[in-house]
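Predict the 3D structure for this chain.
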Amino acid sequence: MPSSIFSFKRHLYVALGTAILSSVLFVAASEALVRNKIVPRHPFYKYIDVFRNSPNPNAIFGDSHFAYGIAGLNGFTNVAYPGNNFRSISEKVRLYFADRQPGRVILQAGVHHFSQNFLFRRPNESRSIADDLRPQSAFKFMMFHNQHRPHLFDYWEIYLDGREFDPTTQFVTEENRENEPNYLDVAPRIRRIASSRISRILMPVEAFQDTSIARLYEKTITDLKQRGAQICLVTLPVVVELRSEMKRNPVFEKTTAYFRDLAERSRVRYRNYLFTEFPGHYFSDPHHLNIIGARAVSPQIEQDCFGSPSPDPIR
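Done. Predicted structure below.
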Protein backbone atom coordinates (compact mmCIF):
# COMPACT_ATOMS: atom_id res chain seq x y z
CA MET A 1 0.00 0.00 0.00
CA PRO A 2 2.68 2.57 0.94
CA SER A 3 4.52 1.93 -2.33
CA SER A 4 1.33 2.47 -4.34
CA ILE A 5 0.69 5.77 -2.50
CA PHE A 6 4.27 6.81 -3.15
CA SER A 7 3.90 5.90 -6.82
CA PHE A 8 0.64 7.89 -7.05
CA LYS A 9 2.23 10.97 -5.44
CA ARG A 10 5.22 10.71 -7.73
CA HIS A 11 2.99 10.61 -10.81
CA LEU A 12 0.93 13.50 -9.44
CA TYR A 13 4.02 15.63 -8.85
CA VAL A 14 5.31 14.82 -12.33
CA ALA A 15 1.95 15.78 -13.85
CA LEU A 16 1.78 19.02 -11.88
CA GLY A 17 5.39 19.86 -12.71
CA THR A 18 4.79 19.20 -16.39
CA ALA A 19 1.66 21.36 -16.36
CA ILE A 20 3.46 24.20 -14.59
CA LEU A 21 6.47 23.99 -16.90
CA SER A 22 4.22 23.91 -19.98
CA SER A 23 2.31 26.96 -18.73
CA VAL A 24 5.51 28.86 -18.06
CA LEU A 25 6.88 27.98 -21.51
CA PHE A 26 3.58 28.97 -23.17
CA VAL A 27 3.51 32.34 -21.39
CA ALA A 28 7.17 33.03 -22.21
CA ALA A 29 6.75 32.04 -25.85
CA SER A 30 3.50 34.01 -26.18
CA GLU A 31 5.07 37.12 -24.67
CA ALA A 32 7.99 36.85 -27.10
CA LEU A 33 5.57 36.36 -30.00
CA VAL A 34 3.57 39.45 -29.06
CA ARG A 35 6.61 41.67 -28.49
CA ASN A 36 8.62 40.57 -31.52
CA LYS A 37 6.01 39.73 -34.18
CA ILE A 38 2.79 41.56 -33.29
CA VAL A 39 3.65 44.88 -31.65
CA PRO A 40 5.91 46.16 -34.49
CA ARG A 41 3.01 45.74 -36.96
CA HIS A 42 0.13 46.67 -34.67
CA PRO A 43 -1.59 50.02 -35.41
CA PHE A 44 -2.37 50.65 -31.77
CA TYR A 45 1.27 51.31 -30.87
CA LYS A 46 1.80 53.69 -33.78
CA TYR A 47 -1.24 55.58 -32.53
CA ILE A 48 0.10 55.65 -28.96
CA ASP A 49 3.41 57.03 -30.24
CA VAL A 50 1.65 59.91 -32.00
CA PHE A 51 -0.57 60.58 -28.98
CA ARG A 52 2.34 60.60 -26.56
CA ASN A 53 4.84 62.60 -28.61
CA SER A 54 2.91 65.14 -30.69
CA PRO A 55 3.73 68.73 -29.66
CA ASN A 56 0.55 70.05 -31.25
CA PRO A 57 -1.93 72.02 -29.09
CA ASN A 58 -4.59 71.63 -31.79
CA ALA A 59 -6.22 68.20 -31.72
CA ILE A 60 -9.15 66.15 -33.01
CA PHE A 61 -10.97 63.68 -30.73
CA GLY A 62 -13.52 61.04 -31.67
CA ASP A 63 -14.04 57.47 -32.83
CA SER A 64 -13.75 55.86 -36.28
CA HIS A 65 -15.98 58.53 -37.85
CA PHE A 66 -13.35 61.15 -37.01
CA ALA A 67 -10.34 58.87 -37.51
CA TYR A 68 -11.45 58.29 -41.11
CA GLY A 69 -13.66 61.33 -41.68
CA ILE A 70 -11.19 64.16 -41.00
CA ALA A 71 -8.00 64.33 -43.05
CA GLY A 72 -5.57 66.84 -44.48
CA LEU A 73 -5.73 69.40 -41.67
CA ASN A 74 -2.02 69.89 -41.17
CA GLY A 75 -2.53 72.24 -38.25
CA PHE A 76 -4.16 69.47 -36.19
CA THR A 77 -3.14 66.16 -34.69
CA ASN A 78 -5.94 63.65 -35.18
CA VAL A 79 -6.03 61.37 -32.15
CA ALA A 80 -9.46 59.88 -32.89
CA TYR A 81 -9.42 56.08 -32.68
CA PRO A 82 -11.90 53.48 -33.99
CA GLY A 83 -14.23 51.86 -31.48
CA ASN A 84 -13.96 54.46 -28.72
CA ASN A 85 -17.05 55.43 -26.76
CA PHE A 86 -17.27 58.91 -25.28
CA ARG A 87 -15.88 57.79 -21.91
CA SER A 88 -12.65 56.83 -23.66
CA ILE A 89 -12.69 59.98 -25.80
CA SER A 90 -13.14 62.21 -22.75
CA GLU A 91 -10.28 60.49 -20.94
CA LYS A 92 -8.04 61.00 -23.97
CA VAL A 93 -8.91 64.70 -23.99
CA ARG A 94 -7.84 64.90 -20.35
CA LEU A 95 -4.60 62.97 -20.87
CA TYR A 96 -3.61 64.70 -24.12
CA PHE A 97 -3.82 68.12 -22.49
CA ALA A 98 -2.32 67.03 -19.17
CA ASP A 99 1.03 68.46 -20.30
CA ARG A 100 -0.08 70.61 -23.24
CA GLN A 101 -1.89 73.95 -23.30
CA PRO A 102 -5.07 73.41 -25.37
CA GLY A 103 -5.43 75.31 -28.60
CA ARG A 104 -8.11 74.52 -31.15
CA VAL A 105 -10.10 71.37 -30.37
CA ILE A 106 -12.49 69.56 -32.70
CA LEU A 107 -14.63 67.26 -30.57
CA GLN A 108 -16.99 64.69 -32.02
CA ALA A 109 -20.66 65.28 -31.27
CA GLY A 110 -21.82 61.79 -32.20
CA VAL A 111 -25.54 61.05 -31.93
CA HIS A 112 -24.58 57.36 -31.71
CA HIS A 113 -22.66 57.98 -28.48
CA PHE A 114 -26.09 57.92 -26.85
CA SER A 115 -27.12 54.62 -28.45
CA GLN A 116 -27.53 51.37 -26.54
CA ASN A 117 -24.42 50.02 -28.22
CA PHE A 118 -22.16 52.85 -27.10
CA LEU A 119 -23.78 53.51 -23.72
CA PHE A 120 -23.86 49.96 -22.40
CA ARG A 121 -22.09 47.47 -24.69
CA ARG A 122 -18.82 49.11 -25.62
CA PRO A 123 -16.05 48.47 -23.10
CA ASN A 124 -15.01 51.39 -20.95
CA GLU A 125 -11.33 51.60 -21.85
CA SER A 126 -10.72 54.91 -20.07
CA ARG A 127 -9.14 53.17 -17.07
CA SER A 128 -6.46 51.51 -19.20
CA ILE A 129 -5.63 54.48 -21.42
CA ALA A 130 -3.28 56.07 -18.88
CA ASP A 131 -1.38 52.78 -18.59
CA ASP A 132 -1.19 52.48 -22.37
CA LEU A 133 0.41 55.89 -22.65
CA ARG A 134 3.22 55.06 -20.26
CA PRO A 135 6.41 53.64 -21.80
CA GLN A 136 6.17 49.87 -21.93
CA SER A 137 8.15 48.16 -19.18
CA ALA A 138 10.31 45.19 -20.02
CA PHE A 139 8.83 43.53 -16.93
CA LYS A 140 5.17 44.01 -17.86
CA PHE A 141 3.42 41.24 -19.77
CA MET A 142 2.08 42.69 -22.99
CA MET A 143 0.29 39.47 -23.89
CA PHE A 144 -2.30 40.19 -21.18
CA HIS A 145 -3.17 43.61 -22.61
CA ASN A 146 -6.75 43.84 -23.87
CA GLN A 147 -5.39 44.50 -27.36
CA HIS A 148 -3.81 41.01 -27.38
CA ARG A 149 -5.31 38.73 -24.75
CA PRO A 150 -8.44 37.77 -26.77
CA HIS A 151 -6.33 37.06 -29.88
CA LEU A 152 -3.46 34.98 -28.52
CA PHE A 153 -4.55 31.73 -30.14
CA ASP A 154 -5.16 33.56 -33.43
CA TYR A 155 -1.60 34.91 -33.22
CA TRP A 156 -0.25 31.39 -32.72
CA GLU A 157 -2.25 30.07 -35.65
CA ILE A 158 -0.86 32.81 -37.89
CA TYR A 159 2.69 32.18 -36.68
CA LEU A 160 2.52 28.40 -37.00
CA ASP A 161 1.07 28.72 -40.50
CA GLY A 162 4.13 30.76 -41.45
CA ARG A 163 2.10 33.90 -42.17
CA GLU A 164 2.87 37.51 -41.22
CA PHE A 165 0.56 39.33 -38.84
CA ASP A 166 -1.72 41.54 -40.96
CA PRO A 167 -3.91 43.73 -38.73
CA THR A 168 -7.56 44.02 -39.70
CA THR A 169 -7.35 47.76 -39.05
CA GLN A 170 -4.47 50.06 -39.90
CA PHE A 171 -3.08 53.10 -38.21
CA VAL A 172 -5.05 55.69 -40.12
CA THR A 173 -2.89 57.69 -42.51
CA GLU A 174 -3.80 59.24 -45.83
CA GLU A 175 -1.23 57.07 -47.57
CA ASN A 176 -2.90 53.77 -46.62
CA ARG A 177 -6.39 54.93 -47.58
CA GLU A 178 -6.05 55.43 -51.32
CA ASN A 179 -8.02 52.31 -52.25
CA GLU A 180 -11.01 52.75 -49.97
CA PRO A 181 -14.40 51.73 -51.36
CA ASN A 182 -16.89 54.04 -53.03
CA TYR A 183 -20.31 53.45 -51.50
CA LEU A 184 -22.05 54.19 -54.79
CA ASP A 185 -20.65 50.89 -56.07
CA VAL A 186 -23.08 49.12 -53.72
CA ALA A 187 -26.47 48.21 -55.21
CA PRO A 188 -29.26 50.67 -54.25
CA ARG A 189 -31.37 47.95 -52.63
CA ILE A 190 -28.45 46.86 -50.43
CA ARG A 191 -27.80 50.50 -49.51
CA ARG A 192 -31.40 50.93 -48.35
CA ILE A 193 -31.36 47.72 -46.30
CA ALA A 194 -28.01 48.59 -44.71
CA SER A 195 -29.15 52.11 -43.85
CA SER A 196 -32.33 50.84 -42.20
CA ARG A 197 -30.33 48.41 -40.05
CA ILE A 198 -27.62 50.93 -39.14
CA SER A 199 -30.12 53.63 -38.18
CA ARG A 200 -31.47 51.26 -35.53
CA ILE A 201 -27.95 50.52 -34.24
CA LEU A 202 -27.01 54.22 -34.06
CA MET A 203 -30.34 55.39 -32.59
CA PRO A 204 -29.98 57.31 -29.31
CA VAL A 205 -31.96 56.16 -26.30
CA GLU A 206 -35.01 58.30 -25.51
CA ALA A 207 -33.75 59.79 -22.24
CA PHE A 208 -30.22 60.44 -23.49
CA GLN A 209 -30.02 63.84 -21.74
CA ASP A 210 -30.18 62.08 -18.38
CA THR A 211 -27.28 59.70 -19.04
CA SER A 212 -23.79 59.91 -17.59
CA ILE A 213 -22.50 60.56 -21.12
CA ALA A 214 -24.49 63.80 -21.35
CA ARG A 215 -22.95 64.94 -18.07
CA LEU A 216 -19.51 63.89 -19.32
CA TYR A 217 -19.90 65.93 -22.53
CA GLU A 218 -20.67 69.00 -20.42
CA LYS A 219 -17.77 68.39 -18.03
CA THR A 220 -15.29 67.81 -20.86
CA ILE A 221 -16.28 71.05 -22.57
CA THR A 222 -16.23 73.01 -19.30
CA ASP A 223 -12.76 71.72 -18.39
CA LEU A 224 -11.39 72.63 -21.82
CA LYS A 225 -12.99 76.07 -21.75
CA GLN A 226 -11.45 76.82 -18.35
CA ARG A 227 -8.03 76.16 -19.85
CA GLY A 228 -8.62 78.49 -22.79
CA ALA A 229 -9.37 75.99 -25.57
CA GLN A 230 -11.22 77.04 -28.71
CA ILE A 231 -13.76 74.23 -29.06
CA CYS A 232 -15.87 73.14 -31.98
CA LEU A 233 -18.36 70.29 -31.70
CA VAL A 234 -18.91 68.49 -35.00
CA THR A 235 -21.46 65.95 -36.21
CA LEU A 236 -20.35 64.37 -39.49
CA PRO A 237 -22.59 63.56 -42.48
CA VAL A 238 -24.03 60.21 -43.55
CA VAL A 239 -25.22 58.84 -46.89
CA VAL A 240 -28.58 59.97 -48.26
CA GLU A 241 -30.34 56.67 -47.49
CA LEU A 242 -29.27 56.74 -43.86
CA ARG A 243 -30.11 60.42 -43.58
CA SER A 244 -33.64 59.66 -44.77
CA GLU A 245 -33.99 56.95 -42.12
CA MET A 246 -32.77 59.35 -39.43
CA LYS A 247 -35.16 62.07 -40.49
CA ARG A 248 -38.06 59.69 -39.93
CA ASN A 249 -37.03 59.23 -36.29
CA PRO A 250 -37.34 62.42 -34.20
CA VAL A 251 -34.75 61.27 -31.64
CA PHE A 252 -31.89 61.98 -34.08
CA GLU A 253 -32.96 65.60 -34.57
CA LYS A 254 -33.60 65.86 -30.83
CA THR A 255 -30.00 64.77 -30.20
CA THR A 256 -28.49 67.31 -32.60
CA ALA A 257 -30.69 69.96 -30.97
CA TYR A 258 -29.18 68.92 -27.63
CA PHE A 259 -25.67 69.43 -29.00
CA ARG A 260 -26.68 72.82 -30.40
CA ASP A 261 -28.12 73.91 -27.04
CA LEU A 262 -25.05 72.56 -25.21
CA ALA A 263 -22.77 74.57 -27.49
CA GLU A 264 -24.82 77.74 -26.97
CA ARG A 265 -24.82 77.31 -23.19
CA SER A 266 -21.08 76.61 -23.20
CA ARG A 267 -20.33 79.38 -25.69
CA VAL A 268 -18.56 77.08 -28.12
CA ARG A 269 -19.30 76.35 -31.76
CA TYR A 270 -21.33 73.46 -33.12
CA ARG A 271 -21.35 72.39 -36.74
CA ASN A 272 -23.95 69.81 -37.70
CA TYR A 273 -23.57 68.11 -41.10
CA LEU A 274 -25.81 65.14 -40.30
CA PHE A 275 -28.70 66.39 -42.43
CA THR A 276 -26.52 68.06 -45.08
CA GLU A 277 -26.29 66.27 -48.42
CA PHE A 278 -22.88 65.29 -49.70
CA PRO A 279 -22.08 63.19 -52.80
CA GLY A 280 -22.44 59.43 -52.36
CA HIS A 281 -18.91 58.75 -53.58
CA TYR A 282 -17.60 60.58 -50.48
CA PHE A 283 -18.51 57.55 -48.34
CA SER A 284 -17.06 54.08 -47.81
CA ASP A 285 -20.18 52.83 -45.99
CA PRO A 286 -23.44 54.44 -44.79
CA HIS A 287 -21.82 56.44 -41.97
CA HIS A 288 -18.08 56.72 -42.67
CA LEU A 289 -16.40 59.12 -45.09
CA ASN A 290 -13.71 57.67 -47.33
CA ILE A 291 -10.49 59.53 -48.07
CA ILE A 292 -12.07 61.44 -50.98
CA GLY A 293 -14.89 62.64 -48.74
CA ALA A 294 -12.58 63.37 -45.81
CA ARG A 295 -10.32 65.53 -47.96
CA ALA A 296 -13.31 67.41 -49.35
CA VAL A 297 -15.23 67.92 -46.10
CA SER A 298 -12.37 68.57 -43.64
CA PRO A 299 -11.36 72.03 -44.96
CA GLN A 300 -15.01 73.05 -44.80
CA ILE A 301 -15.17 71.89 -41.17
CA GLU A 302 -12.08 73.89 -40.27
CA GLN A 303 -13.43 76.98 -42.04
CA ASP A 304 -16.88 76.67 -40.45
CA CYS A 305 -15.40 76.04 -37.00
CA PHE A 306 -12.57 78.55 -36.83
CA GLY A 307 -12.78 80.78 -39.89
CA SER A 308 -9.16 80.23 -40.87
CA PRO A 309 -6.70 77.35 -41.23
CA SER A 310 -4.75 76.39 -38.13
CA PRO A 311 -1.00 77.00 -38.39
CA ASP A 312 1.21 73.96 -38.79
CA PRO A 313 2.55 72.82 -35.41
CA ILE A 314 6.13 73.58 -34.48
CA ARG A 315 8.10 70.33 -34.81
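DSSP finds twelve helices and seven strands in the chain.
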